[in-house]
Amino acid sequence: MILSWNAAAERIFGYTAEEMTGRNVRSLIPEDRQEEEDRIISTIMRGERVPTFETVRRRKDGSEVQVAITVSPVRDEDGNVVAASKIARDITEQKRIRSRLAESEQRFRLMADNISQLAWIADGDGWIFWYNKRWFDYTGTTHEQMQGWGWKAVHHPEHVDRVVERIQHSWDTGEDWEDTFPLRGADGNYRWFLSRAVPIRDEAGVVRLWFGTNTDVTEMRDAEQRIELLLQEVNHRSKNMLAVIRSLARRSDANSRDFLERFDQRIAAIAANQDLLVSRAWSQVPLREMLETQLQFLADAQAQCELAGPIVELSPAAAEALAMAVHEMATNALKYGALSIPEGRVRIVWTVSGDGSSQDRRFAISWRESGGPAVAPPQGAGFGTRVIVDVPRHKLAAQVKADYPPEGFAWTLECPLEAP
Description:
The chain has helices at residues 7-13, 17-20, 34-45, 92-114, 133-139, 143-146, 160-173, 218-251, 259-280, 287-295, 316-335, 383-396, and strands at 50-58, 64-75, 81-90, 118-123, 128-131, 177-184, 190-201, 207-216, 285-286, 305-308, 313-314, 345-353, 362-370, 399-403, 410-416. The chain is α+β, with helices and mostly antiparallel strands. It has three domains: 7-95, Beta-Lactamase (2-Layer Sandwich); 115-216, Beta-Lactamase, CATH 3.30.450.20; 220-416, Heat Shock Protein 90 (2-Layer Sandwich), CATH 3.30.565.10. The model has no long low-confidence stretch (mean pLDDT 86).
């Protein structure tokens, strides 16, 4: 039974002291929470205090109010428990604020964990204390491993010192930070990320936080490198085009009545080959078809080329790298090598060796010229050497060798079967 009812209780519940004095406190408790009072009475009768807990009570108008309740036993002179002192504090606004904060936190988490970037937050000194879920999913690390300067562990050892130096400069000066570097994924492979961080300042202009993101630009970076290489290749091929045309002209019989027709067909074959390369560049290409396409511009000299090997499908990257190399070697053979005279020959042979899965098998291809003019090694390594040797070596993780014995140019490539 309620013995006293102060003004604060009147404000919270809407009942006056006259209305509530003598009534059972259970009239304030919703039906589905009556067991709370049972536990309170049991605890008080044992002489124990009921710690503060949050619950719901009912106002005079029937509405519910969020309250925090603390109950303590009241004893008489002999120490017997004769009553209970119950303090109820209205926490409706506090709960509303807490709910809004939780909703805001949920929205932030939803956004932060589902954006395509890795994201993180550091304090004003650069100590990183928060990462989004995508960071941990990509790196396979834990928060304990990454907090502070732990992020250095997933940086490439060849880049980490440079990255630390540049980001420390931003920590010290408060300048926006931007850098591009590789980060190691949970699978052990590195991918390139464009990374940025901006300072968050207080009203006095002091940097309190840093918010940073890492955007995966691996495919974009590879595409830019391919474009740069292809532009160089286009430029290089355009310089060779007149020389190729002159060679075709020399091989044609200028006294023949069908000279112009034959010559025009050979020029058209070169143009058709370029169109075919573009149309097939980014799909699976049979190796033999790629070779035949690349050798079409040779016209009659194509008959001097022998192709031999099993069926092998090329990935887009492998088709691009090998096609460029084959075209370069064919151009050189037509200009200077075995295909510059009718008696010369070129033999292109490829093999697949090893047993088991494609990871354990090896792919090899060779280009060998014979019957042509005497060959001598080039005096320097130009763009042509890069196309023949460096590009396939990098693209296919291959072992590539170019030899220049007097009897004819020879080129070999060997790589894992899964690379082509």
